[in-house]
Specification:
2 copies of one chain form a homodimer. By secondary structure, chain A is α+β, with helices and mostly antiparallel strands. The first copy, chain A, has 2 domains: 130 residues, 60s Ribosomal Protein L30, Chain: A (2-Layer Sandwich); 167 residues, Alpha-Beta Complex (Phosphoribosyl-aminoimidazole Synthetase, Chain A, domain 2). Helix content of chain A is 31%, strand content 27%. In chain A, strands 9-11-8-12-10-13-14 form a 7-stranded mixed β-sheet, with helices on both faces. In chain A, strands 1-2-7-5-6 form a 5-stranded mixed β-sheet, covered by helices on one side. A two-stranded antiparallel ribbon of chain A has the order 3-4. In chain A, helix 2 runs parallel beside helix 3, helix 2 packs parallel to helix 5 and helix 5 packs antiparallel against helix 8. The longest helix of chain A is centred in the first third of the chain and has 18 residues. Chain A is globular, with a radius of gyration of 19 Å. At the A-B interface, helix 1, strand 1, strand 2, strand 5 and helix 3 of A face helix 1, strand 1, strand 2, strand 5 and helix 3 of B.
Amino acid sequence: MRKLLQERIVPILGGSTLSDAADCGPVDGCVVVSTDSFVVAPLFFPGGDIGSLAVCGTVNDLAVSGAKPLWLTLSLIIEEGLPLPLLERVLRSVADAARQCDVQVIAGDTKVVPRGAADQLFINTTGIGVKRQSNELSCTALRPSDVLLVSGPIGQHGIAVLVAREQLSLTPMPVSDCAPLHVACAALQDELGVDLRAMRDATRGGVSAVLHEWSEASGTTMKLNESLLPIAPAVRGACELLGLDALYVANEGTFVAAVAPQAVDRAIAALHAVQVSSQAIAIGEVIERGNSAVVIERLFGRLHPVDEPSGAPLPRIC
Amino acid sequence: MRKLLQERIVPILGGSTLSDAADCGPVDGCVVVSTDSFVVAPLFFPGGDIGSLAVCGTVNDLAVSGAKPLWLTLSLIIEEGLPLPLLERVLRSVADAARQCDVQVIAGDTKVVPRGAADQLFINTTGIGVKRQSNELSCTALRPSDVLLVSGPIGQHGIAVLVAREQLSLTPMPVSDCAPLHVACAALQDELGVDLRAMRDATRGGVSAVLHEWSEASGTTMKLNESLLPIAPAVRGACELLGLDALYVANEGTFVAAVAPQAVDRAIAALHAVQVSSQAIAIGEVIERGNSAVVIERLFGRLHPVDEPSGAPLPRIC
């Protein structure tokens, strides 16, 4: 996907703001805009549905860019024959999530396509927010000895959707982390100021994709400590069963942050004060650029490279 | 579609701004936002393609609401297997249209779905603009003796797409009117000021859909004069062949305007000075509310009601 964007899309569309790898583009000094299409299958999964996912996904893009989310647009592509009660359930979920995120749905569009031309329902949400602080958050600002945090257990969303889609019965059932991050992100920003380098929601490609982008943007290496990675038992079990690595699995309510070393304790305390990030933990640090963009210290102390996610091991998880 | 919106979507999502029938929502005093998904089939048709259509469609929504379009987001849902050269052709078309509209693409998203889960390519564009003038354009402001204009020949887009999709060979071939309207709308606004009541791009449901919405919003009847309707020979021929009425066929570069009676000549002159609206013409007037929301004076002088478009006689034309 990153290759497609960098080699095919960005060169044609130009646009200085599109070319940084984040999903958000600043439109002037203070307005920030993000857009996302959601094609998740199934539409409903433990912990969420395409409606809450669409709202949280877009709100989170704005939140991790340091913006306060204000407005959403909502565009539906509906396959002919989609049962109306199902559509209404999704819309109620959109409305609930929007209320929870304190954003207003201000414009919408609906297209119905004939049976077979789309799979049930796709949703696009575009979010508009305003920057909360004047200082820039940027993954180009990462430097050696900065500390890497995650706001909670990783890999939950992708595994929950996959298990729901394949109708596997696992005990316990993995549950998506789908949730808005704006309060946690704001708390971290307010507490840390310039000691907060960057935040990113770890969606497609998981924590690994974020760290690869950050490595490339900052010319450093990201070093993780395997023993510190928070992975829930249900996710760990499903990953082992399915041959997946939780580092590559999408999250929808968990973000990665890079903070100055002297600010780690304050960062953790600020995150722990917010429900959604009450299990935040440091998972590694930024080091001088080595041979690999991302490395992980395995349980026995050896360093292994972490490859960039490629292909689509988990299609349609968002 | 209007029924679906009014009965199912708006009640759930609330939002005062969603409930007026326009596609655009004002987000504060001066920012205007519009969102649209495009599912047109085929992707390429005489006069345009899904890329130019997506840009023009969203730019035009902003333009007719009285805003200057500034920024666009672009979200792609791609069916696995879509040939890359085809995608690039669409993206080049997006880039060209954005340049022509003087808007910047500031954020994007790409989702690839497995073969069969979508038909080739869907595009969502969300546009952000700023209001050009302080006075409100509103279809609630229409009053008897206001004059109704169209900016050019009607029905071209829908017919062109339909003919391309069905691979009919007609001579001459109908060509879509797909084009940006921001310059024409701005010219009309600047010339007329408060004498301009409302503008609306006549997309799905054509001129008829716009007039039905305006009638409902203003409590008046819209009276058309059949002899004045500008319909190109290729469109007239195709409509007769296919049993369609050009009044119900979508346009993508033609808008309807309601102006004060004393401003008609100035309106026509301002529109004729702009290429895209060089064939603008008055097609009727607003009258006191009668039995029908929209009526048409046929060639022999009798008044006929014009029904509201219903169903989807032309699916996937935008």
